[in-house]
Amino acid sequence: MQESLVGRVLDAAMGCGGSYADIFAEDTLIHSLELQDGKVSQTRQVCLHGAGVRVLKGGATGYAYTMDLRRKALIDAARFAATIGGKEPLSAMPCIDGVDDELLLPCAQPAVSPGHVRELLLQADQMAHDMDARVVRVKAAVATNSRQLFFANTEGVSYTDYRPFTSIVVR
């Protein structure tokens, strides 16, 4: 998480006279692997991420959301949220030029390595067959979810949280 980027986003959010602003962002990586009859039958990977910027100004609340966690998109969202109740049109707000390689959150990493997941499923397959000779077919799946959360506001409060989750099913 880049503190200088957070400061710029919150400054942009306050740029139209807001009294309070905050940013909430998340990056989630979901990975699943399915084994059937000792062979990998399916694998999926999904990445979900985004950030919301909220600005309070008088009795009004402005909010904008972006799925792009890079600097320009975050500042554009902050400026859009800041226009609530304002007289200045969004098009009059200047865009930031330059290289846009700053990310608010680094990409989430798998909670469990894919190689370890495959070995775990092979062990589950073997255990199911060893438990009863009548077992003919085994289907096993592992799903991992790695979720990173970030929050910061103009009152100086900020936190990050990492929430790994893994589930296994053997049928």
Could you characterize what this model shows?
This protein has 171 residues and is α+β, with helices and mostly antiparallel strands. It contains 3 helices and 5 strands, in the order H-E-E-E-H-H-E-E. The chain has helices at 3-14, 71-82, 114-131; strands at 20-36, 39-57, 60-66, 139-153, 158-170. A 5-stranded antiparallel beta sheet has the order 3-2-1-4-5. The two termini are 41 Å apart.
What is the secondary structure topology, with strand pairs?
Blueprint (H helix, E strand, L loop, with lengths): L2 H12 L5 E17 L2 E19 L2 E7 L4 H12 L31 H18 L7 E15 L4 E13 L1
Antiparallel strand pairs: 1-2, 1-4, 2-3, 4-5
Task: Provide key terms for this protein.
5-stranded antiparallel β-sheet; alpha+beta; 171 residues; 3 helices; rod-shaped
Give the class from helix and strand content and strand pairing.
Answer: alpha+beta
Taking all residues together, what is the mean pLDDT? 85
Order of helices and strands: HEEEHHEE
- Helix percentage range: 10-25%
Largest sheet, described in full? 5 strands, antiparallel
Estimate what percentage of residues fall within beta strands: 35-45%
Distance between the termini: 41 Å
Q: Indicate the low-confidence ranges by residue numbers.
A: 89-99
Secondary structure tally: strands: 5
Shape: rod-shaped
In short:
With 171 residues, the protein is an alpha+beta fold. The chain is 25% helix and 42% strand.
